[in-house]
């Protein structure tokens, strides 16, 4: 066995570059080429007892390699047939995008609509504070200057507004929305 393994290693050394060139002509992907060549050598080693000595080893091994490459091409076309094309009709081999799924986007839009309707039900000062701080991203000090109030008074209005929004939204059936604006922890309210 040791002698057979040594002889097979010598064969691998002799055929490696030639096999890689042949596989590259079929696959055109260096990663797949390495895998196909390795698979072909493994198959050749496993089926070495069935090798007929009246044939040339190079031809026998090349047939194994070509079949391995053709199998990989078939597998690749099967995979692309099952992939869903993106908006431009292109199938992507890369990682999925970070964009939300259409379902997630629709749910976010519905929640946004419900949140806007709930904000419209707030008293004027609370609604103004919520819109300027949470939706426009203004600091409470600046909002206080705009509204003619102390910064602490703006925070009180925000606290009461968030509490009221939670109540309105839970009555509307949005119990999963624990923090309607998603900003209360950041603002310290």
Cα-to-Cα separation, first versus last residue:
75 Å
Low-confidence parts, pLDDT < 50 over ≥5 residues? 184-189
Strand content: under 5%
| Largest pleated sheet | none
Elements, N to C (H/E): HHHHHHHH
Q: In one word, what is the shape?
A: rod-shaped
In round numbers, the mean pLDDT is 81
Helix fraction? Answer: over 70%
| Helix segment tally | 8
Number of strands: 0
Helices and strands: which structural class? mainly alpha
Radius of gyration: 33 Å
Tell me what the structure shows.
This protein has 189 residues and is mainly α. Helices cover 70% and strands 0% of the residues. The protein has eight helices and no strands. The protein has helices at residues 2-27, 30-46, 57-82, 102-120, 124-135, 140-147, 151-171, 184-187. Helix 5 (124-135) crosses helix 7 (151-171). The longest helix is centred in the N-terminal third of the chain and has 26 residues, at 2-27. It is rod-shaped and about 100 Å long.
Question: What's this entry about, in short?
Answer:
It contains 8 helices and no strands. The chain is an all-alpha fold and 189 residues long.
Question: How is the secondary structure organized here?
Answer:
Elements: H1 2-27, H2 30-46, H3 57-82, H4 102-120, H5 124-135, H6 140-147, H7 151-171, H8 184-187
Helix pairs in contact: 1-2, 1-3, 2-3, 4-7, 5-6, 5-7, 6-7
